[in-house]
From TrEMBL:
It comes from the Bacteria. Its cofactor is Mn(2+); Mg(2+). CDD domains: NUDIX_AcylCoAdiphos_Nudt19. Residues 26-227 form the Nudix hydrolase domain. SUPFAM superfamilies: Nudix (SSF55811). This is Nudix hydrolase domain-containing protein.
Length: 267
């Protein structure tokens, strides 16, 4: 039980929570997607240093569930929300929101759209000005994902996603997320682009390369991202990642005193 040192600015809060003086902030449902291409390589965004959460860290596309993500009118193909709920130990409504958020946030933050005209096809190009206009409207929430798909005659392709992990932000943090991790292959014909917004840089990296850069202090990775990249480095192809059998169990790092120092541990 070694873990990582708890940041000094959270030590006092950890003590207060342990003493029952402070209540942990509720964790918001969110989704993140590891987009993979041949190599295998993963798509990473570096969050701007001005961001309130994970400033300067390299992350996968993702974000919180929008209440409209649970809309039952959403055009859907592939495993049902109920099936996803069984995978992630969530109710059907929550699962619907998680999968929708995964696909929506991936489009918002990378330009990659896991949707198509029907259950057997996928959009091949999302780089035009009209797509960019819709992407920005999704980001500012003036357009719901349901309306976006409906207007374009598209269905969400939940079969293009695979469940990978479930991480919950430690209780000591001021901003907390209950995050389900997905993996997905970059659809044929689509390409990512630098979409700006919360990110100031994007990059494709082999998982093992990203881990080594983090170890050397060249890039910053949050523990769930680091752990996921370490796991992915064991696979030699996108197909192998997608075929991996995963048992999803929630991981909630907790503050534990180890030899006089508070550290975050996962076991």
């Amino acid at each position: 039980m070694t873990g990582i040192p708890l940041p000094q600015d959270l030590v006092g809060r950890a003590r207060d929570i342990e003493a029952g003086l402070v209540e942990p902030v509720p964790a918001r449902d969110s989704a993140t997607v590891v987009v993979l291409r041949d190599g295998p390589e993963v798509y990473l965004l570096r969050r701007r240093t001005t961001m309130a959460f994970a400033a300067g860290a390299y992350v996968f596309p993702g974000g919180s569930v929008d209440p409209r993500d649970t809309d039952q009118a959403l055009a859907w193909a592939g495993p049902s929300p109920a099936a996803w709920g069984e995978v992630f130990n969530a109710d059907e409504r929550t699962a619907r929101g998680l999968v929708c958020a995964a696909v929506r946030e991936t489009f918002e933050e990378s330009g990659v759209l896991l949707a198509g005209p029907d259950s057997a096809t996928v959009v091949t190009d999302t780089t035009g000005a009209d797509w960019e206009s819709d992407r920005l409207a999704l980001i500012d929430r003036s357009l719901s994902f349901t309306d976006f798909l409906d207007r374009r005659g598209l269905v969400l392709r939940s079969d293009l996603l695979r469940a990978w992990a479930h991480w919950i932000t430690p209780e000591v943090e001021h901003r907390r997320f209950d995050t389900r991790f997905f993996v997905a292959a970059l659809p044929h014909g689509q390409r990512t682009r630098d979409v700006g917004g919360e990110a100031d840089h994007v990059a494709w990296k082999r998982p093992g390369e990203a881990v080594e850069l983090a170890r050397a202090g060249a890039i910053t990775l949050m523990p769930p991202t680091y752990h996921t990249l370490r796991e992915l480095s064991a696979y030699d192809s996108v197909e192998a990642v997608l075929a991996a059998r995963r048992e999803i169990t929630a991981i909630l790092p907790r503050a534990v005193e180890v030899e006089g120092e508070l550290r975050l541990v996962t076991s």
